[in-house]
Design goal:
The chain has three domains: 224 residues, FAD/NAD(P)-binding domain; 125 residues, FAD/NAD(P)-binding domain (3-Layer(bba) Sandwich); 80 residues, FAD/NAD-linked reductase, C-terminal dimerisation domain (Enolase-like, domain 1). Helices cover 25% and strands 25% of the residues. It contains eleven helices and 26 strands. Strand 2, helix 4 and strand 3 form a beta-alpha-beta unit. Helix 3 runs parallel beside helix 8 and helix 9 packs across helix 11. It binds flavin-adenine dinucleotide. Flavin-adenine dinucleotide binds next to helix 3, helix 6, helix 8 and strand 22. This is monodehydroascorbate reductase (NADH). It comes from Adiantum capillus-veneris (Maidenhair fern). Keywords: FAD, Flavoprotein, NAD, Oxidoreductase, Redox-active center.
């Protein structure tokens, strides 16, 4: 089915027949464990002066890149055919850890690399540097792609070298949105968090921090503020909306979490924006001035105000863009043959709701990588059919008496029925025109989380009044499950 906003003309979306044959033949070679060094490049449009030529080049060494490589190796494609070009200095890792166990106080066993390289997030082997070396996969660390020439099939890089690809997967993710320099967004002590280098800088700051201001009430802000309580740091959260996690939480869900934060000493300044991040010495942050005139003293400020897709190197390439990201079809093919895009940077057809979107969550990064590689290698050709899923975990450090782990599946549209006492369980069901659209669950068991995923996928007809009468979260889930049969 063609999705609104994504044009699926066969001439643009489909690789040329000869390219398909090359893919098949390279897959056969890989499956047999025979990986001739780029001999097939004689058949493609080579850039005469490329410093490196690869069958499969993945740009971006993040979550999606790690899972894409795993998918290639599971199909027997490895060795010198594959190359990752990574801006970071370490192999791909599970990025969500950076604002969770990475921020535990130093005496509470914080997570550190190599503990959370991909693909431990789904219980698969850790892909350390040694793993890539054993597989013969080249990872170019600390190298940023700076441009793409689609007709020559080459990438230019920050190191000055160029890389030629036969198939290119773009997995550059997103970058943390920043506050303008003019209002103090680049002062010393103002932290943004996207990669492990940022997390290291934040850990260093937390060790000395006395007063922390967290700007942004989304999941990054909540996770950083929760971590700061484990360090016993005086913490204030600031955001323009009326409550935390405004894009998902209802006011009553938010109130429950805010109460938890308050019990741990976190203060809130809601409904305000930042006028200026102030510095007494012109270098280091000393306070945050808010739009209502309040001035909050601070030696560290963490800004968690969203992210922007990392499309910079591709803007002039001719790749079609949509909603700020790189437009792909249900097989993750861009508008240019032999180029795919996955993870946070890809704008894809969300089949279940018949709309196009970008998703900045790790589950999608993993699944889009798998789906893309399966499609690229022609293992399958079904369009991606993703069920939106998001989670957050806070207060999980050793010794914490109340650990928080919520998951959300589906679409938060329609009216909401909330069930539970939050000690610790709580659930919310979004119902639109009598159809269940989305489910939020706090502190569920693995079976219950599985059940709510099934509910959001199946979207049963549901009587809101019956659900309102549920005596417990378990009861509400069982009422909803009955509606699926
Ligand atoms: C701190 C934090 C916590 C998170 N917590 C959660 C969570 O709890 N739950 C959840 O569902 N999601 C969470 N996310 C979101 C999740 O991590 C992302 O959706 C996921 O990492 C996206 O994977 P990706 O590969 O598309 O991008 P990324 O993992 O960001 O990887 C992109 C990589 O590309 C590199 N790159 C960028 N440009 C270039 C270039 N020009 N050349 C070479 N390399 C380049 C980047 O350096 C980066 O390493 C979190 C994200 C962050 C930052």
């Amino acid at each position: 089915m063609a999705m609104a906003g994504v044009r699926q003309g066969a001439s643009l979306w489909c690789p040329q027949p000869c390219q398909r044959n090359q893919l098949r033949s390279s897959l056969r070679q890989g499956t047999q464990g025979v990986c001739p060094r780029v001999s097939h490049f004689a058949t493609v449009n080579c850039a005469a002066n490329a410093d490196l030529s690869k069958e499969y080049v993945i740009v971006g060494g993040g979550n999606a890149a790690g899972y894409a490589v795993r998918a290639f190796t599971e199909h027997g494609v490895e060795g010198s055919k594959i190359c990752i070009v990574a801006k970071e200095k370490v192999p791909p890792y599970e990025r969500p850890a950076l604002t969770k166990a990475y921020l535990f106080p130093l005496d509470k066993s914080p997570a550190r690399l190599p503990g959370f390289h991909t693909c431990v997030g789904i219980g698969k082997p850790r892909q350390t540097d040694e793993w890539y070396k054993e597989k013969g996969i080249e990872v170019l660390y600390d190298v940023a792609v700076t441009g793409l020439d689609v007709s020559a099939k080459t990438l230019s890089t920050s190191s000055g070298s160029s890389i030629q690809y036969n198939n290119l997967i773009i997995a550059t993710g997103a970058t943390a949105a920043r506050l303008p320099k003019a209002i103090g967004g680049a002062l010393q002590g103002v932290q943004y968090i996207r990669d492990v280098a940022d997390a290291d800088a934040l850990v260093e700051a937390l060790q000395k921090c006395k007063k922390l201001v967290v700007i942004g009430g989304g999941y990054i802000g909540m996770e950083v503020a929760a971590a700061a309580t484990a360090w016993s740091i005086d913490t204030t959260m600031v955001f323009p909306e009326p409550h935390i996690m405004p894009r998902l939480f209802t006011p009553s869900i938010a109130e429950k979490y805010e109460e938890l934060f308050r019990n741990k000493g976190v203060k809130f300044n809601k409904g305000v924006t930042v006028k200026e991040i102030v510095s007494k010495d012109g270098e280091k942050v000393s306070a945050v001035e808010l739009s209502d005139g309040t001035v909050l003293d601070a030696d560290t400020v963490v800004v968690g105000i969203g992210a922007k897709p990392a499309v910079g190197p591709f803007l002039e390439s001719g790749l079609r863009m949509a909603e700020g990201g790189i437009e792909v079809d249900g097989l993750f093919r861009t508008s240019t043959p032999n180029i795919w895009a996955i993870g946070d940077v890809a704008t894809f057809p969300l089949k279940i709701y018949n709309r196009t979107t970008r998703v900045e969550h790790v589950d999608h990064a993993r699944k889009s990588a798998q789906h893309c590689v399966d499609s690229l290698l022609q293992v399958q050709q079904d369009p991606y059919d993703y069920l939106p899923y998001f989670y957050s975990r806070i207060f999980e450090h050793p010794g914490s008496e109340r650990k928080v782990w919520w998951q959300f599946y589906g679409d938060n549209v329609g009216d909401v029925v909330e069930v539970g006492d939050f000690s610790p369980k709580y659930a919310a069901f979004w119902i639109q025109s009598g159809t269940l659209k989305g489910v939020f669950l706090e502190s569920g068991s693995p079976e219950e989380f599985g059940a709510v995923a099934k509910l959001a996928r199946q979207q049963p007809k549901l009587d809101a009044k019956k659900l309102q009468g549920a005596s417990s979260v378990e009861h509400a889930i069982s009422i909803s499950l009955e509606a699926t049969s």
